[in-house]
Amino acid sequence: MTEKYFYLETFGCQMNVVDSEQMVEILQGLGYGQTDAAENADLILLNTCSIRAKAERKVYGHLGSFKPLKERNPNLILAVGGCVAQHEGERMLKKVPYLDFVFGTHNVHRLAELVQNAEAKLGRGLLVDFLDEEQRRQLFPARRPSREISRFVTIVQGCDNFCAYCIVPYVRGREVSRPSAEVLAEVRSLIDQGTAEITLVGQNVNSFGVKEGEEISFAELLRQVHDLPGLQRLRFITSHPKDLSDDLIECFGSLDKLCKHLHLPVQAGSDRILEAMGRGYSRDQYLNKVEQLRRACPEIRLTSDVIVGFPGEDEDDFEQTLDLLRRAQFAEIYSFIFSPREGTAAAELTDDTPAEIKQQRFDRMLALQEEITRRFHEEDVGKVLPVLVEGESRQGGGQLFGRTSWNRIVNFKADASLVGRIVPVRLIEAQRNSHIGVVESEGSAAS
């Protein structure tokens, strides 16, 4: 019987989700059970993201909220991992004296050692050492198989792009690809245990295998994963526009298990700002990629990231971004107001746009995108779509939930025996973050 428990909170991107899955397995191997209530935990662990300054502040805020728990229970272990830990390191230990240990993105595999040292009260721990590319290639997380319907599989770690605003290459290191044979072996193992949907994950999956020379391309890896018996659905994230090849675009037209959704971060609609960001493409090149994708797969839906208020952005630059949103017709965007990250090139640029102007631009962009997104969702009402049933809905009421090929959540009443199957669901109501649906008879779903 488990006598000790951990509470884990994950911030940020899919890479952090994969790291957290590895942390869970390590802690369970040490005899810890997982709890959803921090006040019931013997160990509290935050896996952090440093993509924005707000994310770092949020971490420190959370740590402050845990201080009373530590005061009531001095044996409580409080730890921080992830990108903020890698970036802040020793400063974090100094700022938060009741923190037991900090470990960075390259040291997840040493979590057991840190926990055992904390349990033995051997002093506060700090592990933020960088590993070289070959060492990291040996440490790709090959998680234990599970019966989860949808799983992430890491294929690339780190990034070589060094976009002016981005801290990722400095906290996760240079790009390294996992051997394709290992990827295929892990996917086979997950499928054998009942996984129906695989998402291939990396900071830039498009450049998979490029540095390794003799490896297959990412498009070929997609084809080989797609053809594994038993797989029902395939996704990938994230895709850098400058590396989106014609071969990869063609996959959306030829691979029937590949979901008709692509997250393709544009960041800005002005050539001047794109160049300052170091993105490696122009607005026209980006929009040409969008046209190619829709020719290859007319049903495809695109999502994107956009930064407002990058240093030097003027009203004309911003209007070009709005124009790009109208042209690209993204189903959704993830938008941010620029925040400088220490150590990046953009942190050295003059940023003289008032905060209130940035906020006004952000609000205008959000209003435009909400109108586009709402139109997509309202037009979907009445459609019958194939939905992969993942499990019990958070909305309760005996409902299950699943996702369309476009990655839209649908909630509906159905028997739990449908979990793990793709079933036809008629969408009957559009809500802000999901649709309500009803299961149709087999054979009714659109392709």
UniProtKB/TrEMBL annotation:
Enzyme class: transferase
Subcellular location, record wording: Cytoplasm
GO molecular-function terms, A-Z: 4 iron, 4 sulfur cluster binding; metal ion binding; tRNA-2-methylthio-N(6)-dimethylallyladenosine(37) synthase activity
One annotated Gene Ontology cellular component of this protein: cytosol
Superkingdom: Bacteria
Catalytic activity: N(6)-dimethylallyladenosine(37) in tRNA + (sulfur carrier)-SH + AH2 + 2 S-adenosyl-L-methionine = 2-methylsulfanyl-N(6)-dimethylallyladenosine(37) in tRNA + (sulfur carrier)-H + 5'-deoxyadenosine + L-methionine + A + S-adenosyl-L-homocysteine + 2 H(+)
InterPro entries reported for this sequence: Elp3/MiaA/NifB-like_rSAM, Methylthiotransferase, Methylthiotransferase_CS, Methylthiotransferase_N, Methylthiotransferase_N_sf, MiaB_methiolase, rSAM, rSAM_horseshoe
Cofactor(s) required, per the database record: [4Fe-4S] cluster
Residues annotated as domain MTTase N-terminal: 4-120
Residue sites binding [4Fe-4S] cluster 1 per the record: 13, 49, 83
Keyword Hydrolase: no
Its EC number(s): 2.8.4.3
Alphabetical list of Gene3D superfamilies matching this protein: Methylthiotransferase, N-terminal domain, tm_1862 like domain
Keyword presence, tRNA processing: yes
Pfam families, per the entry: Radical_SAM (PF04055), TRAM (PF01938), UPF0004 (PF00919)
Co-factor binding details: Binds 2 [4Fe-4S] clusters. One cluster is coordinated with 3 cysteines and an exchangeable S-adenosyl-L-methionine.
Main location: cytoplasm
Subunit structure: Monomer.
The protein's name: tRNA-2-methylthio-N(6)-dimethylallyladenosine synthase
Record organism: Syntrophotalea acetylenivorans
Gene this protein is translated from: miaB
